[in-house]
Write a structure and sequence with these properties.
The structure holds two protein chains of two kinds.
Chain A (H helix, E strand, L loop, with lengths): L6 H11 L3 H23 L3 H13 L1 H6 L7 H28 L1 H6 L1 H6 L7 H27 L4 H28 L3 H24 L2 E2 L6 E2 L8 H7 L9 H23 L23 H29 L1 H5 L3 H11 L4 H25 L1 H8 L2 H6 L4 H35 L2 H13 L2 H17 L4 H14 L2 H6 L4 H4 L17 H24 L7
Helix pairs in contact in A: 1-8, 2-5, 2-8, 3-5, 5-8, 5-9, 5-10, 8-9, 9-10, 9-11, 9-12, 11-12, 13-16, 13-19, 15-16, 16-19, 16-21, 16-22, 19-20, 19-21, 21-22, 21-25
Chain B lengths: L4 E10 L2 E11 L4 E5 L6 H8 L7 E6 L8 H5 L2 E4 L11 H12 L4 H10 L13 H13 L5 E5 L7 H16 L3 E6 L2 H7 L2 E6 L5 E6 L1 H5 L4 E7 L12 E7 L2 E6 L4 H9 L3 E7 L3 H10 L11
Helix pairs in contact in B: 3-5, 4-5
The chains are: A mainly alpha, B alpha/beta.
Chain lengths: 540, 306
Amino acid sequence: MNALAGLPALTRLALRRDRFTLPAWLLGLSAFTAATTAMWAADLTDPADLARESRLAATSPGIRLLGLASGGSAGAYAMVRNFVLLAVLAALMSVFAVVRHTRQGEETGRAELVGAAAVGRHAPLTAALIVAVAADAALAVLLGLALAAAGMPAAGSFTAGAAVGAVGLVFAGVAAVTTQLSATTRGASGQAAAVLGAAFLAAGVGNMAGDPDATGLRVRSAWPAWLSPIGWGQQARAFDGNHWWPLGLAAGCFLAATAIAVRLTARRDFGRGLLPERTGHRRAGRLLRGPIGLAARLQRGALLGWATGMLGFGLIMGGLAGQVADATGSAREWYTRTGGSDVIVDAYRTSILQMAGLAAAIYVVQVLLRLRTEEADGPLEPVLAAAVGRVRWALGHAVTALAGATALLLLFALGAAATAGAVLGDPVGEVRTLVPAALVQLPAVLVVGAAVIGAVALLPRLAGGVAWAALIAAVLTGPIFGTTLGLPGWVRDLSPFTHVPKAPAVAVGATPLIALGAVLAVLLLAGLIRLRRRDLSLPA
Amino acid sequence: MTPVIAASGLRKSFGATRALDGFDLTVRAGEIHGFLGPNGAGKTTTIRILLGLLRRDGGEAEVLGGDPWHDAVRLHRRLAYVPGEVNLWPNLTGGEVIDLLGTLRGGLDNKRRADLLDRFDLDPAKRCRAYSKGNRQKIALVAAFSCDVELYLLDEPTSGLDPLMERVFQDVVREVRAAGRTVLLSSHILSEVEALCDRVTIVRAGRAGRAAESGTFAELRHLTRTSMVVDTVRPAGGLAALAGVHDLHAEGRRTYFTVDDGAVTGVLAELTGLGVRSIVSTPPTLEELFRRHYAGSAAPQPAGMR
């Protein structure tokens, strides 16, 4: 078939390019699943504990947003905790793989070189989909093995693996379509991520709006959950019935999306998207006249997306304050332990601000890694060849990221204050409490940002991996997960988030802030000094 | 008058790869200096060292009287640079990039900007991802020449331009020279360098990053041989024995050979005795000069030209 000429060679090329990336995804997700599942299984050996936790998962709307309760087994409990996270990561793995082998090649011009050879029109997309689908299938099998290795029943384990793989499969199809719509890698990934966000919300809202069945261990989801691929994966009810038919919906959705993408490929020009390329300003505005202006412009898109998300996150979390006030048992205990206060609502306020702090840190890592791509892709060269020093350039990005993180925390606090105020009464008081307390998270966020700058300066080629690994380590050893995972104190002390004062539940002391400031200064100085001294690794 | 660029003995390695090994370059004020060499000879590395983007491993470098590494920002207010591979921000428009780079350099001349956009026939409202390679290069050229600076560093600036635009480019470069500015133009296009440059430095392949020769084209021509074709009454095979005669071959009474610049007189004296019917003498072509240095063949190294 002419349209697929060159497919075997392109598939081998894609596999070769992904020979480290995809195994890292697959092994990382499997190891995480095996470890967390084994941990929960060990924690909940007492059937009474397990029943209590499962009942809580079914009755608490907050937990229903993030996981679907399906019976009282340890495997089902592990799915409540892990499934949405795994599904989202599997979807991202698929989206990145498809975009990497299609739109990214066209944007960089590599695909032009390939396309001029005896390669059919549909071969690049098909090769990308083969790789993504193979990765999803491998993930399904590996997750099944990981769960079985953690002591879970085999049937449920492989149903769960297949459910996660099915979500990945759908998003391989979604990315196949968005790469036809947008002319850029960022645009294609961003549109697919927006669909993922919608899928997450539909599943979460559908489960939240659902109700527990007679046993109190199982949630019957409302209709929005059935609009979401993540919802389909949850409806497979791994470890509780093991229904495979909802996964058929996912397969059908993938096939439909692929058919649409193939049609669109035939209609569009090489290197362009179907969405029209708009023209822009003929002159730079006042704001775009210096390193900070440039950094702000480059971070703008990410900030807008994050701002919407953080505001929505704040509104939802604030709205749950009323239910938390009535919480009992282990949920109450978790909040008071994490939030550092016996007053449950104060503890809850603290814990949601801690979550917002982690989210702001993810944002900061994302936008500051732009320092690395600016260098590696080349746009940095004309900037530094103009009268801009390296330190000024890096600080321009850092200051802009700080401003963005501050705005995100404020939006979260205002959103949470609005809904919490509506539920608990006294909206003004909520604003007065939450807004200053949200800003207390900033020093730890800044430490993470300084670590990114250090990574870019000291280990430019590894900066992305090092920065994300450091962030994940800081998050896992931080207050939200560190206590849940039962890590020893000295390990938790390694995370900057552990040292953030537990505002508003506890009064803010100066010592931890000064200590965080000192760590920040050391990391930043080391990074900037190295940045001034090293060669730039510009493209040849 | 002190040179605008004075580099001597520049050395730079990337891991085990030696990019520059004792490279010399002198650019005088007010000249257009050609910087010729094959791909991978170290032209871009040299320019990046002169911009302080890379740090030299050894040797001396001075740009506009300052150290390119330590005084980078101060010096960059007085120079403009066009990279060989122009990578820009895909979501900014060409007009925005021109303004941004101009401002970062310390300000641009709006009248000049409008004039250059017009002459290069460039639409500044398009986003950078929509520009072709040639148009991205034009963005960088307009951004550079909109600034009135002392030194323009241009790294293969015309590789994506069509002949009409190349002409515009040459006009613009001559204008800045007429205004007393200095230009360093790296290229592997001989005709462009010959049309524009006052002096030229040739980097040779094979001996990584060593300037083979530097001077005006007239001076460089002396470094190669004159080609001669003679018809003689008696066979001229004996010429091969003369010092400075190369590549001799005969077809009947017609003899072809090349002569070193200094050996022409002796050859003529010998020819007179053979009875010359006709003689055609071709001066060394630049192509030949160029080929010889690019190929890194063992051309005689005259003293004093290094």
